[in-house]
Amino acid sequence: MPPKPKAAPAAQQDDTRQDLTSLILPGLSITPPSEDAITGTLQQRFKRDLPYTHLGPTTLVVVNPYKHLEQLNDASLNEYADAYYRDTSGQKRFLQPHIYEMAARIYFHMRRTGENQSVLLSLY
């Protein structure tokens, strides 16, 4: 049996944890973030192959990396499913923002509440 592919190190604890949420949360900043602050954050994460960035608790910004990334594999999918769907302990560990996280959270919310969910994709 071939070895399982290794997941990308999603649970990094360094400065890659910064995302746009810290720029827009009420109480953390008196003024809204500037275009430069938002663009700078997106550029920094993109350069580190982190194309997914939270913009608030229900919005995910994705910058197309135009290349294959290691974090798009079955092992990574299972890691996010375990953390955001299967783990009901309430003790969520930190994982980088990812489309797998958003999908798991949407599905879990739909199953828990019975409410319909919408996903909007905007391409520029």
UniProtKB/TrEMBL annotation:
The keyword Signal does not apply. InterPro entries: Kinesin_motor_dom_sf, Myosin_head_motor_dom-like, P-loop_NTPase. GO terms for cellular component: cytoplasm; membrane; myosin complex. One of its GO terms (biological process) is actin filament organization. Residues 22-124 form the Myosin motor domain. One of its GO terms (molecular function) is actin filament binding. SUPFAM superfamilies: P-loop containing nucleoside triphosphate hydrolases (SSF52540). Pfam families: Myosin_head. Signal peptide: none annotated. Belongs to the TRAFAC class myosin-kinesin ATPase superfamily. Myosin family. This is Myosin motor domain-containing protein.
